[in-house]
Design a protein that fits this description.
Organism: Pseudoduganella ginsengisoli
CATH architecture: 3-Layer(aba) Sandwich
Number of domains: 1
Helix content: 40-55%
Low-confidence stretches: none
Shape: globular
Protein name: AAA family ATPase
CATH superfamily: P-loop containing nucleotide triphosphate hydrolases
Oligomer: single chain
Number of strands: 6
Mean pLDDT: 93
InterPro entries: AAA_dom, DNA_Partitioning_ATPase, P-loop_NTPase
Strand content: 5-15%
Pfam family, one: AAA_31
Strand order of the largest sheet: 3-2-4-1-5-6
CATH topology: Rossmann fold
Length: about 260
């Protein structure tokens, strides 16, 4: 099972929209995908709710019995191609209050149980900022993708994430093993308005400073993407002419991610 996390430090940059569209694109490829909504806001759970695995929750992944409960669930519900959602729940916000060392071992055991169940792909939506939950997600991930608005505050937040990724790779966080195989897919310029001179300037500056770590694609400021996630469908199912360009951009991102991950 390959694991990809979508992580950013700042909210409102399109993190969840990116994550759920990767899930929709994986489903089109008939990839057996487990989606973990580790964000207490539960926006991914709303959009992907039709695929919810009833009886298991995101909080369960961090508990001592979580791995055994996952094994029992998937023994009764064999994995099939498409999306299986492990949704956010009301107790999840409590998890991030614990030191990472207290929950990391349980989470890693739960991830192992999901791999044993037969999933090919695990996609993870994380809460904004730092904390135990994003650190646990990155510690088990093979890849991480970071949407970023071409605005000053968002770019500043990415710099903090770069530090966190480095600390995860080299084992500099107490309670977490090093994850030297964590591959950063890079920053995805999102909600870009090329008619806005500030966006054009900031995008150029971002590429100049982090050239090797900027995804060679952009997603524009497209209202139809928000329409899609609110309607619980991918943007390419929105019946509007304005959705065509958004669909092309989002599909290009999914193709880039899955080609890099060698997901067919």
């Amino acid at each position: 099972m390959k694991i990809s996390t979508v992580a950013v430090n700042k909210g409102g940059v399109g993190k969840t929209a990116t994550a759920v569209h990767l899930a929709f694109a994986a489903a089109e490829r008939q990839v057996s995908t487990v989606f973990l909504d580790l964000d207490e806001q539960g926006n991914s759970t709303y959009t992907l709710g039709a695929h919810l695995a009833e009886g298991i929750s995101a909080t369960m992944l961090f508990t001592p019995d979580g791995a055994n409960e996952i094994r029992a669930y998937f023994a009764a519900h064999p994995v099939k191609p498409g999306i299986t959602l492990i949704g956010s729940d009301d107790v999840l916000k409590e998890v991030d209050r614990y030191p990472v060392a207290d929950i990391a071992q349980n989470f890693m055991a739960s991830i192992k149980a999901l791999a044993e169940a037969g999933f090919d792909l695990c996609l993870v939506d994380t809460p904004n900022g730092g904390g135990s939950i994003p650190q646990c997600a990155l510690a088990v991930s093979d890849y991480v993708l970071s949407p970023v608005e071409v605005e000053h505050y968002s770019i500043q937040g990415i710099r903090k994430l770069v530090t966190t990724i480095g600390n995860i790779k080299f084992g500099n966080i107490d309670g977490l093993p090093a994850n030297p195989n964590l591959h950063w897919l890079g920053m995805l310029p999102n909600k870009v308005d090329l008619r806005n001179p500030r966006h054009v300037t900031n995008l150029a500056a971002l590429k100049a400073e982090h050239n090797d770590y900027v995804v060679p694609l952009t997603v524009g400021l497209r209202s139809t993407i928000a329409d899609a996630v609110a309607s619980c469908v991918p943007v390419w199912k929105i019946k509007k002419t304005t959705a065509r360009l958004a669909s092309s951009e989002v599909r290009a991102v999914a193709n880039y991610v899955f080609e890099t991950m060698e997901i067919n």
